[in-house]
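Input for the complex:
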Amino acid sequence: MVRNATSVAMLDATSCLHLLMQIAFFDLQFHYIPKLSLVGISFLSKSIDYFHALPFLCFFIFCCRLSGLIVDIFGDEAVVASSAAWVEKYKQKIKDCIGRINNINNVTWRPSTEILKEEGLDFSDSAFVESSNSSRMVKVVENGISYLISLEGQKTGFYADQRDNRKLISSISEGQKILDIFCYTGGFALNAACGGALSVTGVDSSLPALEIANENIVLNGLDPGRISFLRQDATEFMKNAITKGESWDIVILDPPKLAPRRKVLQSASGMYRNLNSLAMQITRRGGLLMTCSCSGAMTQSGTFLRVLQGAAQMAEKKITVIRQAGAACDHPIDPSYPEGAYLSNILLRVL
Ligand SMILES: C[S@@+](CC[C@H](N)C(=O)[O-])C[C@H]1O[C@@H](n2cnc3c(N)ncnc32)[C@H](O)[C@@H]1O
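Predicted:
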């Protein structure tokens, strides 16, 4: 079912705060909460932008140590990504709390079964198995752009953390030729097209994601002659482009999490270096490369810029850093919990 975004209203900040206080201080017992990965809660609504998001900051500050719990709110739908045993243990309580927020009509539960198995949970137990309505779609508006979101899609269905970085791309795209590698449902590409780009190409290996990306072109009334999506392996695409001598004014490179654990950081660094080296070779001289890592291990190691410098040497390019950013403002970081910082978004000029 596709919900009309016009029925979506902003959430009431007071009830959000109340929810978090309940989860953090009363309903849950913190000694059960292991020190694990990340947590973020994001809101998308008909009209959310930076200023609308600000009232929620106080709310998120309370939650940014609830590791293993992500709640993204798409209009009247809350999607919970669970990746810690304590989240599963308090599933019903968390659902009840979220269900009490004004305007939330449904809570979709998305357990990361592989991670939870590592935490010792047994998924053969029918208590963990939840019936899901496989074709559920919602429609939201972010930065003035409409998106269809599949609640069965990657992460929670949408990468809400890149919202501010997508907006930046929209503001610098006019008249430019843009390439969005690892485009998923077209987030950066659609922003570039709406920002007046001359031409936009998105590349991803996921067919379901690209089907939605194509629907998003239509949804936003964009000219399919100016924006298109291609299903291909990213490395293969970039190597072919190098062979053909093709280049773009702005390249966005947002790969999946290549270092899910600190143990594999070294090998992942090699993968990041190779991908970035290829991306630099197809960025026109003087053009821009927005390169990302959503691996907490990479971001927290503080070595991403060194990896990028290695990539530049491999590509025989010079790079300068124009901007260093992370996740959008509804993903706050508690200084006493640096593990909460996972996303790196670096804008480079490539010479
Ligand atoms: C972090 S997500 C990108 C999010 C996107 N930039 C956005 O703003 O919505 C990473 C994407 O990489 C894609 N992917 C994974 N491996 C790939 C490969 N070898 N070639 C192309 N795409 C790949 C996934 O399907 C996923 O859509």
